[in-house]
Protein: M20 family metallopeptidase
Amino acid sequence: MSKILTYLINNQHDIEETLLQLVEAESPSKNKMLTDKCGLVLKESFETLVGGKVEIIEKEAVGNQYRFTYGDGTETEQILIIGHYDTVWDQGAIPIRKEDGKLYGPGTFDMKGGLAVTLWALKALKEFGHFGKRKVVFLVTSDEEIGSEHSRALIEEEARKSEMVFVPESSISHSGAVKTFRKGIGIFKLIVHGKSVHAGIDPWSGASAIDELALQIADIKSLDNKEEGVSINIGTISGGTRTNVVAGYAEADIDLRFRTKDQAHELEHALLDRSSFIKGTMVEMQGGINRYPLEKTDSVMGLYQQMKEIALRHGYELEQGSSGGASDGNLTAGLGIPTIDGLGPVGDGAHAENEHVVLENLPYRAALIAELIKRNSR
Structure:
């Protein structure tokens, strides 16, 4: 057992307390007042535990963003850790409680558990003087759960300065496996304009936007390919005004998932290149690729191998896995920066009422992150 792990196990109670303080500071993405209060709790925790440089990036529409930096670093490229402190939960939506060695509550698994273990990883490194040539930047944002519109540019700016990126997002449920692959995502809206007429008097003089939308959806769904990992979900559809009127307008919201950048380019072209099937209708596809995939590259697998070795020294096996969901790690991976995700603690229930983390795992996950930073900052 390493000195770092021993130290963190001995501080189990304080790690739990750090996490509890973050969870109790509820932070729904769209409630700036509450998210800013949580951000201040996070800031105070960093200043107390680590004591590095703190920068607040103020935002008007969402909670403020935080850039925490520790170490001077003689190397040009830094180690970047990215996370978010917003949650999907409205204030008071689910209770906070400890039960059977687990902490339940909003954001415990996604991803305040990851924030807490990262803070304590940095605390342990400071305690033992293990920061090396690379400075560590811990960038924490407040709008990941609503698409990162207000933080994407900041994340990508920091990623371009970085040698590698660690993402303490929720691990794979129950197993605690880290994520070496995430699918990419595209977000599209299909808009159809038709010609409204009376549905009984002369329907053939009109052009139904709904009929056109149905044909377009059938064509779009033909791009689904389970074997290639391509999925297209028609999430919402709307159109028309009443049953006796040929629809003059219809629209659909579309979610695209894919495995590779090459697929992204091909599918984006196929979706945007639309023409009508029905004379008298016009179709327009809006949107595009939102996040490229976090692909399982040699560099990513090199980081996983390091983590696997660290875990074995700590007495357990660390598995790897994949996710069909995207995170801000996709943004950094999309720039070609080696990124490994799912470094948060063991737990389950992201976005569900049973959201929780396993408390005894917290020091082990903090030690894993600390040792990974130590290896790569020499």
Summary: The longest strand covers residues 184-193. The radius of gyration is 24 Å.
